[in-house]
Amino acid sequence: MQDSRKPYAALRDRQRRFLLCFEACASITQAARWAKVTRQAHYEWMDDPAYVQAFRYAEPRAQRTLEDEAVRRAREGTRRAVRYKGKIVGWEMEFSDVLMNTLLKADPKFRERVEHTGTIEVDVAQRIRDRRAKLLEINKPALNGQTDA
Hints:
Elements: H1 13-25, H2 28-35, H3 39-45, H4 49-76, E1 78-84, E2 87-94, H5 97-105, H6 124-138, H7 140-143
Antiparallel strand pairs: 1-2
Helix pairs in contact: 1-2, 1-4, 4-5
């Protein structure tokens, strides 16, 4: 089994810490905060081929973090405060059907199927000639030096 941290072995501690945070939150801004580095540091590190390779390794893991959170919210919901006259009087679970539909559409089995049949024939050259003739007809008085008086 391959060590999952091997791509990070050649990195400095700050870079490694940033990428581990990025895997966990999938946000460069948040990862920089958590790792206690500047956002700009990440962009400067992108000049280093070893860092770029490690970042490319971290990206699908960060994406999976987002997918996992989306699935959790769609299936388990999120807790939402119920308020009455500005005070919290209880809690309810809120589910997102839109989020669930979006997740399902990632699977080809659940995608909307649209089939286009038939042909459309367009004579582009003829349409251009027709438009040109119409423009000439509209602009005929101006071309002959006539003005509306």
